[in-house]
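Researcher: Structure prediction, please.
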Amino acid sequence: MTSRQPLVLGTHHVAIICSDYERSKRFYTEVLGLEVISEVYRAARDSYKLDLKLPDGTQVELFSFPNPPPRPSYPEACGLRHLAFAVADLGAAVAHLQTHGVAVEPVRVDEYTGKQFTFFADPDGLPLELYER
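Model: Predicted structure follows.
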């Protein structure tokens, strides 16, 4: 590695632990449209691991574990705040989510970039953002 080459090249994956595997699997595949790469049941952990792919190659790993503790969201806790997905047309993306019964916050404009964005939540209340390119 040279001094000009960055250490980190991009995001490979984001890992999410869900409380209801089938519900979250439907949400991420059918509502958000992520592509299934692989799905494995790990008997020793009584856990599923679902690898999902976004169009840019970034992956989401969806895990199920028996009785995971709830995620503190309000007030926001230290740590990962939210996961943001880029979209080409925010209005169309919001309409799509709403047809699937997903509550979406009012659209806002990023005061620094002028881009539109909004927030919604996955089935476990994990904050997700849509950010228009």
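Model: Residues 88 and 133 are 6 Å apart (CA to CA).
Researcher: Thanks, that helps.
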